[in-house]
Amino acid sequence: MKRKITLKQIAKELDVSISTVSKSLRNSLEIGEETRLKVQAFAKFYNYKPNNIALSLKNRKTKTIGIIIPEIVHHFFSTVINGIEHVANENGYSVIICLSDDSFDKEVLNMEMLANGSIDGFIMSLSKETQFRGDFHHITEVINQGMPVVMFDRVTNDILCDKVIIDDQYAAYEAVQSLIDKGRKKIALVTTVDYVSVGKLRTDGYIKALLDNDIPFNENLIIKIEDVDTCEITIGKLLEDKAIDAVFAVNELFAVTIIKTANKIGLNVPRDLAVIAFTDGIISKYSTPTITTVSQNGIKMGNKAAKMLIERLESAEDEEDENYKTDVIETHLIERESTS
Amino acid sequence: MKRKITLKQIAKELDVSISTVSKSLRNSLEIGEETRLKVQAFAKFYNYKPNNIALSLKNRKTKTIGIIIPEIVHHFFSTVINGIEHVANENGYSVIICLSDDSFDKEVLNMEMLANGSIDGFIMSLSKETQFRGDFHHITEVINQGMPVVMFDRVTNDILCDKVIIDDQYAAYEAVQSLIDKGRKKIALVTTVDYVSVGKLRTDGYIKALLDNDIPFNENLIIKIEDVDTCEITIGKLLEDKAIDAVFAVNELFAVTIIKTANKIGLNVPRDLAVIAFTDGIISKYSTPTITTVSQNGIKMGNKAAKMLIERLESAEDEEDENYKTDVIETHLIERESTS
């Protein structure tokens, strides 16, 4: 059986990136003429037709929403999906999910695939690599084709569309303030080494809370950690030096690792070390002690994103609204044993 | 814009089930003539055309695999998806995921949607409701249309297709045997009240291990629990009566709840109570004490399911193989603090 040639295969055959193939097929002037014509000729020879189904279905509604998320083994994204599903189903929509694995190429391929007539619109959270590159042409492309996009959590200012976010800066501020209210002064921020926009906002909130309370900001207490294994080593040193009495961790895996490290060297949580984690996952609920968290409210975020997309899909074409909204979901602190 | 009518809307308008609409449109003799003709007339009037895209695309390959799973906030299914993705991507396939939410109707709708030209084949785990009903017509239908299906974990003998399972009976046997080897004699099985086939197999393995070791089987030690809240109450009573010295729990939420309950009444895990959980999720790795588990090996299961599907998709049409295989993934015990 003759196989259909894919974007990926064209990229491989011609030894160029997927992004280059995608842009060349759309005749983007960003790509040099020689490459552009070569890609187009190759695609034509192998009968590659971008969006040919989409064309034939232009006025057909699929009643399906496409979701693109970075990863699936992640409680936050799972709960957002549940939130989207709930509102989608209530309104007679189905949901299709694709994973980018935090890869730019996979995000581009997924959007290409789903935009080919499978769905009416997208709800997405950007991959780390896409945020790092700052290349959003694939998203601009589907929006220009008239397909609405709602972004959540990991968003970009470079794309005009509806967005649902949490106020990461305020959430971090509130968590750190609650630690200060409990008498803690040597508060570490344990965060990841990454290119995700939310990281900077959380750091800003952490610093602001310290300064508002006249606690000097010590750069050494912002700890950027690669993975859970290095977390234990880095935190172990700080604990042994009694350099910290509280930690605000950006995820619950770091938080639970910090608690175990503290226990190993004979420190008690919360007495010697108070711990708050960002994200409300299941580990926090079931660990010993249970962990105080800043809830990201994934369900509510999913609900809201689905509502925004469906409203846009169902508004009459002649009253198309170019005024995109950014909805800020409120977070709240769930107090548990690790700070009480 | 005129909306496309969906199976669901037809079902609602005519006040019949989705299954009835689906079967009527396929002219199944299971449905009475009156209903069948009414559904067909209604669908025709609203221009509903089942699988009309699929027809136009009969010989076109999408290089996409459709996955249908019962739920997403579940570490096991997430890891299976990662396993599928890995092998699919290596072979140039993309992956689309839909959730049944353990609902029969959603499973039928998802398959209908994806079979409409979006994918080349399915990898699926049955919803609880589908297993309870024993209605698999939607799966038979896609297989008859020439679309291969691979089932994993929650499978049925009523459908001939490739399957990937674990030996649930042996896995339970091995776990209970390991508790007996450590001198435990009053071993409870904590399981769910459900219709999932694996539940019975695990119970069989539990009973066989007891009998092989000349430990009398006590029906009162098989505890069927509705949810995590009732788990605490039921187990609390058994622990206070000193009726048990070990527990084999079918999921890690039960296991961690049992450990917390034991701690509350002053019992020590593992000294007074040894605990093993089925499923290797993240809670077990991070709880205090860490929990011994029977690993379901989701990654390997996903790898294998993807390999089986891709082999079938890429075999030449003239050598189509009707000899379906059932692959049994081996489990292994991951010993941690809760039994040491």
From TrEMBL, chains A, B:
GO terms for molecular function: DNA-binding transcription factor activity; transcription cis-regulatory region binding. Keywords: DNA-binding, Transcription, Transcription regulation. InterPro entries: HTH_LacI (IPR000843), LacI/GalR-like_sensor (IPR046335), Lambda_DNA-bd_dom_sf (IPR010982), Peripla_BP_I (IPR028082). SMART domains: HTH_LACI. The keyword Nuclease does not apply. Residues 5-59 form the HTH lacI-type domain. Pfam families: LacI (PF00356), Peripla_BP_3 (PF13377). PANTHER family: HTH-TYPE TRANSCRIPTIONAL REGULATOR GALS (PTHR30146:SF109), LACI-RELATED TRANSCRIPTIONAL REPRESSOR (PTHR30146). This is Transcriptional regulator, LacI family. It comes from Flavobacterium xueshanense.
